[in-house]
Amino acid sequence: MAILRAGDKIGLTGDDARLFLMETWRTTLPTTVTEYNQALEEAVSEWRAEGSPEGRLLSNLLQGQMLSDDGNPDDRESLTTSQETATEPALYFRDQNSGRIKFTNLGLEQYQEDFKQAGIEIEAIQTEEDFERARLESVRYSSIALMLKLLDYPALNEAFKPFVSSLKAQLKQTKDQ
Predict the structure, then answer these.
(1) Which end of the chain has less Cβ packing within 10 Å, N or C?
(2) Is the dihedral of CA 102, 105, 106, 112 positive or negative?
């Protein structure tokens, strides 16, 4: 597992980030060794409580992924950054001096297509505030687009006919902004 580590601070990237979220049922990535180990401990407990042979196997595998607290990253990769600090390690890095962000490969994988569909160029996102606005706009666009897809079904279309034209107008307005 490739974990970027500088002292107690960590960052998970790529497949490791996705696996961590899947294995621990979390929605956010840890930023410290303590958070990482605590999430794994909770998942280990849940798998053990299940009582099945598969649960015991998974709990043992997860327990083997815990990090040491002594600052040694074992056989994992270590990264010391100079001016950049990982604020959301798997999504982007932020330069503390300028406040500008740079997306990681995972960040690009997770957001580039959604942003593009909403008419947002991910390369134009410079700050955390820009990123937050882009995420909200993307969710808004996706929600409206999903509603319009659902309305392609005749029965639903009839029920929601009064709202269809306003949704289409909002979708167009969102994309044009």
Answers:
(1) C
(2) positive
Candidate from 18-27, 47-56, 98-107 with smallest mean pLDDT: 47-56
What is the C-alpha separation between 166 and 174, in angstroms, rounded?
12
Q: Which two tokens stand for residue 43?
A: 């998942």
pTM across the whole model: 0.40
- Smallest CA-to-CA distance from 62 within 41, 84, 82 is with 41
User: Tens digits of per-residue pLDDT, 49-59?
Assistant: 887 767 776 77
Pairwise CA distance, residues 177 & 134, whole Å: 11
At 127 the three-state DSSP class reads coil
Q: What is the pLDDT of residue 72?
A: 45
Sign, Cα dihedral of 105, 106, 111, 114? positive
